[in-house]
Write a structure and sequence with these properties.
alpha/beta; Quinone Oxidoreductase, Chain A, domain 1; Rossmann fold; 2 domains; seven-stranded mixed sheet; six-stranded parallel sheet; globular; binds zinc ion
């Protein structure tokens, strides 16, 4: 056990408070990690709003799931990690024993115990304790703030582009919301697997970021005006990170024959009308994609280490200043993602 200064969330939908609290000693099968940095993106805000779970018994809670740090203490029975090793957190508290887990599809775990940073304390503190299975090795030499993009913002696109869509060189891909914190990495990962990528966004600033990272920027302020004719034809895959009725309908309508619409948003009460006749004649697919596996976290790290994907961290915050990042994020002023930096690397 040790006293630390960090963040605690006391009410769902509230801002986390900076305070002193106790981080426990790692129990059997757990590891203690000194946090280098923790990512700040829309998913953290959604978690703090109670979007994944809003049970009062989970409070107070230290949020933050995109954690990178160094193992400093091993709980009883942990042999898979050593003190001093650098790790990132795997978001899902999977069981590691069910059919899904054993087949390397841990985000489909049949006995999911929740999420790191929701059902147990996360990385908005200088010290954290997590199950050893949730600590995935990450290479040395990647800047701490940049490494926070690996376990979600880049691993999620790896799952989409490699595993769900099997993108190949020459595929035409449209990413809806390509200027956002996951979108700008989705664009890069799709390119890394050989696809040509068009990025749909609103606003000059985000369209510029898309161009800077090699995408063809398309202004989607009005979806009815967005055409893919300059792109060489309709899309082999559309990846929708926006998830409105308009964006989903546009995505389905702009698939090439054999094309696939991949959905990642989880908003309630949104409907997509799919005409079975169209589905058959154009042999289209509509698929969902849910997070990533631990091996995809390794793949995400390899893409970063080889320079094929550049983590886009628009701003970093010192430990006591994360509130500023939350405001920037809510206002849509952040390029890519933010990171709360505890120690640097
Ligand atoms: Zn499982």
């Amino acid at each position: 056990m040790m006293d630390v200064e960090g963040y605690r969330l006391h009410s769902w939908g509230g801002e986390p408070q900076w305070e002193t609290f106790v981080v426990p000693t790692p129990g059997p099968g757990e590891v203690g990690v000194e946090v280098e940095a923790c990512g700040v993106g829309l998913t953290v805000l959604n978690c703090m709003n109670g979007d994944l779970d809003n049970d009062e018994s989970l409070l107070p809670l230290t949020p933050g799931h995109e954690m990178v740090g160094r193992v400093v203490e091993l709980g009883e029975g942990v042999t898979s990690l050593a003190v001093g090793e650098r790790v990132v957190a795997y978001f899902y508290l999977s069981c590691w024993r069910c059919r899904a887990c054993l087949s390397g599809r841990e985000s489909r775990c049949e006995r999911l115990a929740g999420w790191y940073g929701v059902h147990r304390d996360g990385g908005y503190a200088p010290m954290t304790v997590l199950p050893a299975g949730n600590a995935v090795l990450v290479p040395e030499g990647i800047d701490a703030a940049a490494a926070t993009a690996i376990p979600d913002a880049i691993a999620t696109p790896v799952h989409v582009c490699h595993t769900r869509l099997g993108l190949r060189p020459g595929d035409r891909v449209a990413v809806i919301g390509a200027g956002g914190g996951v979108g700008i990495h989705m664009l890069q990962v799709a390119s890394a697997y050989g696809a040509s990528v068009a990025g749909l966004e609103r606003g000059e600033r985000k369209l510029e970021v898309i161009e800077r990272f090699g995408g063809i920027p398309l202004d989607s302020t009005d979806f009815s005006a967005v055409k893919l004719s300059d792109f060489g034809g309709e899309a082999d895959a559309v990846i929708d990170l926006v998830g409105t009725p308009q964006s989903l309908a546009w995505g389905f309508e702009h698939l090439a024959t054999g094309g696939r619409l991949c959905v990642l948003t989880t908003f309630r009460d949104v409907e997509l009308r799919v005409d079975p006749r169209e589905l058959v004649f154009r042999e289209s697919s509509v698929i969902g994609s849910r997070y990533a596996s631990r091996s995809e976290l390794l793949e995400a790290a390899a893409l970063v280490q080889s320079g094929r994907v550049t983590p886009v961290i628009g701003a970093t915050a010192a430990p006591a200043d994360v509130g500023d990042l939350h405001e920037e994020l809510r206002a849509g002023n952040l390029d890519g993602r933010g990171a709360l930096v505890w120690t640097g690397s």
